[in-house]
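wait is this the right file?? whatever heres the structure
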């Protein structure tokens, strides 16, 4: 029977899982507060004013937001294809749900990435695509996964109108949170955007041998 190192806290994995669950709960709660709540309030006002068109639009948006949050409660299984298979599934699902073309490309020789890192990177890419749908007014987005010796790079770009770089730290975009999570994994986060020429986000992460 293996024994834990004296310097290893046996409760650490439990604490990390609890923190991950709590962070996910807070993210879903923010989505309900920032998206569903205001839309329902607007729909209520519209009904009181007899404005059926606005009320109908709000209800449609509530249904869309609810579907997105429901999808956010769980990711597809990682499976044998690892990060690449998960990212491809997310691209296909996002494209079908939001009627936007989301291309996926994989380059380099497959490398095994631990499950925890795979889930974090998948969540980040999913949220970046949600930003494209919500803010970019794009017709097409592309996700590229590149394996290289000792590192993996993910690029997410779109052909939308671009986002002001100053918006990265604003609530609702999620880019600041994505950058923080990449930093915690020891990686690099690059963001570039110009009005009218789209947005490009690059995540680069070392992979232990």
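ok assuming it is, sequence goes like this
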């Amino acid at each position: 029977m293996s024994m834990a190192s004296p310097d290893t806290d046996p409760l650490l994995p439990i604490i990390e899982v609890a923190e991950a669950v709590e962070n996910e709960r807070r993210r879903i709660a923010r989505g309900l507060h920032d998206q569903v709540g205001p839309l329902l309030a607007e729909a209520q006002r519209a009904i009181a004013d007899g404005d059926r068109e606005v009320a109908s639009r709000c209800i449609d948006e509530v249904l869309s937001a609810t579907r997105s949050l429901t999808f956010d409660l769980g990711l597809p299984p990682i499976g044998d294809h690892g990060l690449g298979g998960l990212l491809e599934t997310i691209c296909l699902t996002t494209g079908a749900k939001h009627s936007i073309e989301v291309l996926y490309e994989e380059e380099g020789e497959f490398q095994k990435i631990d499950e925890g890192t795979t889930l974090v990177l998948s969540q980040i890419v999913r949220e970046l695509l949600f930003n494209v749908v919500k803010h970019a007014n794009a017709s097409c987005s592309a996700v590229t996964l590149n394996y290289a010796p000792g590192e993996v790079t993910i690029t997410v770009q779109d052909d939308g109108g671009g986002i002001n770089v100053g918006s990265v730290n604003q609530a609702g975009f999620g880019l600041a949170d994505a950058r923080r999570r990449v930093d915690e994994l020891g990686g690099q986060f690059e963001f570039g955007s110009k009005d009218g020429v789209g947005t490009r986000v690059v995540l680069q992460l070392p992979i232990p041998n």
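Strands lie at 101-107, 140-148, 151-158, 188-193, 199-206. so i think its the right one actually
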